[in-house]
UniProtKB/TrEMBL annotation:
Keyword Transmembrane carried by entry: no
Family: Belongs to the RNA methyltransferase TrmD family.
Protein name: tRNA (guanine-N(1)-)-methyltransferase
Residues covered by the tRNA methyltransferase TRMD/TRM10-type domain: 1-228
Gene Ontology process terms (BP): methylation
Principal location class: cytoplasm
EC number assigned by the record: 2.1.1.228
Lineage: Bacteria, Pseudomonadati, Pseudomonadota, Gammaproteobacteria, Oceanospirillales
MF terms (GO), sorted A to Z: tRNA (guanine(37)-N1)-methyltransferase activity
A Pfam family assignment: tRNA_m1G_MT
Recorded superkingdom: Bacteria
Catalyzed reaction equations: guanosine(37) in tRNA + S-adenosyl-L-methionine = N(1)-methylguanosine(37) in tRNA + S-adenosyl-L-homocysteine + H(+)
Length: 249
């Protein structure tokens, strides 16, 4: 998947282009990131990229001409790469990103992601140049780079071939609308706490059922809202009822 990034701090994105699952996806050509820095479009001696807000008040905005210069080149880059991207802006005012949203974004014919800085961007640029605003949560960060990386990481996992064996995506808890089950690895005992026997049994069907029961139970305990919008099949209903009975006991 092709993603153009407009950012004043492109080097921050090494966190996803040089490490882990996303780094390997870039190496394998499954994920392609290209960067355009508004500072490269500054024409003054000080390479100014911010500007004062009309109406006064604290803080600055991203300078319009340098931002739009970078955006125009990103669009040209997308076109020459044969893509017709959606242009995304990250801000707390956007649509909340969730697994379904990541899955949806992964189907687009490329993305251009605009990472804001200072107090944001001119509203006329939002209206003219931005297709969609997205948010990673209700808190204010210092820039759009970390939200952009969160979004790119989440959607990259939905790109076919990115994950080692494809079922790890389907097993991801949010992938099937549940919280993840507990996980265990060596040693078998930590401070007197043993690994649940079922996980040592080698019985894959019992293990599958135990993990599903734990996911359902955890979701019931911690995020009951996630169960409200979900129809449980017969097995899931039985396992959750068992969990609830055991929890009440
Ligand atoms: N929360 C968020 N979700 O997506 N982005 C978020 C954010 O807090 N972004 C900060 C940016 C917003 C534009 C101006 C500079 C600071």
């Amino acid at each position: 998947m092709w993603i153009g990034v407009v950012s004043l701090f492109p080097e921050m994105f090494e966190a996803i282009t040089r490490h882990g699952v996303t780094g390997r996806a870039v190496e394998r050509g499954l994920l392609e990131l290209a960067f355009w820095n508004p500072r490269d479009y500054a024409t003054d001696r000080h390479r100014t990229v911010d500007d004062r807000p009309y109406g006064g008040g604290p803080g600055m905005l991203m300078k319009v001409d340098t931002l739009r210069g970078a955006l125009a080149e990103a669009r040209a880059g997308a076109e020459s790469a044969g893509h017709r991207p959606s242009v995304i802006y990250l801000s707390p005012q956007g649509r909340r990103l969730d697994q379904a949203g990541a899955r949806e974004l992964a189907t687009r014919d490329g993305l251009i992601v605009v990472a804001g800085r200072y107090e944001g961007i001119d509203e006329r640029v939002v209206e003219a140049d931005i297709d969609e605003e997205w948010s990673i949560g209700d808190y204010v960060l210092s820039g759009g780079e970390l939200p952009a990386m969160v979004m790119i990481d989440a959607l990259a996992r939905e790109v076919p071939g990115v994950l080692g064996h494809s079922d790890s995506a389907s097993e991801d808890s949010f992938a099937d609308g549940l919280l993840d089950c507990p996980h265990y690895t060596r040693p078998e005992v930590i401070d007197g706490h043993r690994v649940p026997d079922v996980l040592l049994s080698g019985n894959h069907e019992l293990i599958r059922r135990w993990r599903l029961k734990q996911s359902l139970g955890r979701t019931w305990l911690r995020r009951p809202d996630m169960l409200e919008s979900r129809t449980l099949d017969r097995e899931q209903r039985k396992l959750l009822d068992e969990f609830i009975d055991e929890h009440a006991a």
